[in-house]
Amino acid sequence: MGDSGNPGTPASRLSRRTFLGGAAAVGAFGITGGALAGCAEGSSPSSSGGGGSSGPAAAAISVGVFQNPDSLDPGQTGLITVAQVLSTIFDTLIWKFPNDPKYYPGLAESYTVSPDAKTYTFKLRQGVKFHDGTPFDANAVKATFDHIVDPKTKSLSAIGALGPYQETKVVDKYTAQVVFSAANAAFVNEMCQLTMAISSPAALKKYGSGYNQHPVGTGPFVFKQFINNDRVVVTRNPDYNWAPTPLGTGPAKLSQITFRILPDPSSQANALTTGEIQIAQNLNPGDVQSAVSAGKKKLTALSTGMPYCILANNAKPPTDELAVRQAIEFSVNTKAIIDTLFKGLYTPATSVLTPTTPGYNPDQVLYKFDPARAAHLLDGAGWTKSGSTRSRKGQPLELQFINIANFGFDGISQLMQAQLAEVGFKTTITDQAFPAVGTTYNQGKHNLADWFYYDVDPYLYNSVFTTKQIKAGFNWSHYSNPSVDAAIAKANTDPNTESRTQRYEAITLTLAKSASVIPIYNLESIVVTQPNIAGIKFSSVGQPLFHSATA
Amino acid sequence: MLVFILRRLLAAIPVLFGITVLVFLILHLIPGDPAQILLFGSGATPAQVAALDKQLGLTGSIFSQYGHYVVQLLHGNLGYSYASHETVLTEISQQLPYTINLALGGLVVALGVGIPLGIAAGVRPGGVTDKVATGVAVLGVAIPYFWLAILLVLLFAVKLRVLPALGTGSVNALILPAIALGWGFAAIIARLLRNNLIEVYQSPYMIVARAKGLSEWRLLWHHALRNAISSTVTIVGLQFGYLLAGAVAIEVIFGRPGLGAFLVARIQQKDVPSIQGVVLFVAVVYLIANLLVDVIHAMLDPRIRRSWSR
């Protein structure tokens, strides 16, 4: 038979029948191969729903996280979300918890700070082992901090948190002395962050640049597997016995945690409903409400740092006038914004810092929603109302609101525009992508800018409000006050926690009075869990801790 | 035949070159310095940013940067991802199997549903089967695949709890994503096959064959399908890109790893090397798919082969 169609065609060496037969074979092979690969996919350890075989002690859970870890090396990572994964594998020298002024021993039993705040001496805990069996001692502390500042590590977060690091001296096996080249009082809080957690020197050496995929720490869980964009799996460390007191004693209660990487908040919500994950985070406000109505538990935790806020440019008219900035503060109705955009899920911010940050004081709450007061302030400054927009000597009261695209401020800026219009401001909103917008902000083309900042210590002011950060740094409010610059530098030399906190409270009050920061809502983690999950604690930056969690 | 393949390969080279230029240019026209993005918030000094710039090969004129880029490519080096401290090639090869599985799953659904549907509609045009099949096909083309994916999850996973909402962890997990991806493709195949079949059935040789007394089944299998399938295959091959593109949204919705989810994440992080690597990779896949489709089409249809040798 062969080819149909025109008679007399020379029969080709490859007849169509043979070809089709071959193609079918290839197709079958491909599909089988695909099925086998599918089986390979299926063989990755999937975790069961909560409540495994023998009650709470044996439970394995799945936790939804919205970001793929860029690295599992605490010294290298630049993402906050990674901290919750790191907290299962690693420990820090000292621990600090939200709403608790105490510093708790971790891998270090105690520490002292030199009067010039340049040297921190740690007495280390004995009898601690890394997951690879090697012992924890002062060499591990030295290796970890040297690794952070090593250019090959390309540290993103830890290097800034560490500060002006000079060296670590191994005084003896269980005494490590961290020396800075300049006063670093902030380190007392920064050292409690998971980015400062201690890694096994043997593992750092063994894996080299591949350490970020093979993390080895002293934590309550041992690293098992990391499949990019899919999951991180950690299993219980039975030898763990050195948790800080607030996190319980002995090994963890869970047998295994699988962090499922789910960037889409709706898929996390669905997976929580079907029971495929036990803990969901970063859900849309509507999904949080539905989950709670369906009986799920909601946990919230504030983070330290600067809240979601708007910065007013001190260097560009009309926000260069104090009265105008104050009027903006009184024009904004944060409750309305939070109710409209987030279904009332977040707490309104009231100051330059979030309430759990050292340096926050309720005295700093100077502004509330009061449009009448705003109008009064503007009248007093000569901005009179004639029509919808105020003006002064023919100059209209106009604001340039430059938004960072896809940063979460789009709704906020639009609502603010409407609220400001009520008082007589004409606001123009433009969007710019990050990081190009950083340059625009440095050039001061804006009156209003977006802002928030996660940090555990108020020394963050050094990055955000000092004069030297205006040209190319983060001082997007262009706030410049030499006495504040000096006060910030001085505060960082003060090794006494109480007096240092008082100094920052005073600085914060000054900043609040300058009306450069219009707070909107606090940095808050919202974690939704199955009803049988209990025992989750939170870190200073609002990341869940699983040491005492049960299912 | 061999000459044809060689000629097509040679013709592909300038296309490849053009792709590298476009990929390189587009991403370098995006405002913002990647070194600055990477170090944002870490308190890095301008000197440290400049050092990272140099390390990432972002200094020098745009021509020297392009030259540097091409040289790296020729060494098989797709670059080093800013976001993950891994080489782009490693990351692509890690993510690729998941996308291949998904694409194959989608293809199985597309062929398994589309071909029978197309045949059912094509052999009896105007009949009830045709109307039903065409209706289903129209729905398949009209419904966006990502909306279908969400509907499938809500119905089969959340409501009925028969299949998982998340796309990894078991073979079952591949079912809903494959359906969501393959359905629209199935519709296209069904419509094409139907139209081609109707056309073929009206050809003179089919009338002759029927007059010779061949059964309807033999007519369909040995004559009609063979002629109808060749142009369908061409379109199928060209539409393979549709599968790759659809993978992006499906992977995100189902929380699957793969090139699509990878690309989305890296675009958000403005990780230039990863984006360049994936776009280049996908472009090469398209090129190869097109070449294969041309070759297959030629093999299936001797009339095409003859037209080349002229």
What does this structure look like?
The complex is a heterodimer of chains A (551) and B (310). The termini of chain A are far apart. Chain A contains 16 helices and 23 strands. Residues 1-23, 25-40 and 42-56 of chain A have low confidence and may be disordered. In chain A, helix 9 (322-331) runs antiparallel to helix 11 (371-380) and helix 15 (482-491) runs antiparallel to helix 16 (497-513). Chain A has helices at 16-42, 82-89, 138-149, 158-162, 187-190, 201-207, 265-274, 285-293, 322-331, 334-342, 371-380, 410-423, 436-443, 461-464, 482-491, 497-513, and strands at residues 60-65, 94-96, 103-105, 108-113, 119-124, 165-172, 175-180, 221-227, 231-236, 256-261, 279-281, 297-302, 305-312, 384-385, 390-392, 395-396, 398-404, 426-432, 448-454, 517-521, 524-529, 537-538, 544-545. Chain A is globular, with a radius of gyration of 28 Å. Chain B contains 13 helices and no strands. The chains are: A alpha+beta (551), B mainly alpha (310). Chains A and B meet through helix 1 and helix 7 of A and helix 2, helix 3, helix 5, helix 7 and helix 10 of B.
Short description:
Chain A has helices at 16-42, 82-89, 138-149, 158-162, 187-190, 201-207, 265-274, 285-293, 322-331, 334-342, 371-380, 410-423, 436-443, 461-464, 482-491, 497-513, and strands at residues 60-65, 94-96, 103-105, 108-113, 119-124, 165-172, 175-180, 221-227, 231-236, 256-261, 279-281, 297-302, 305-312, 384-385, 390-392, 395-396, 398-404, 426-432, 448-454, 517-521, 524-529, 537-538, 544-545. Chain A is of the alpha+beta class and 551 residues long.
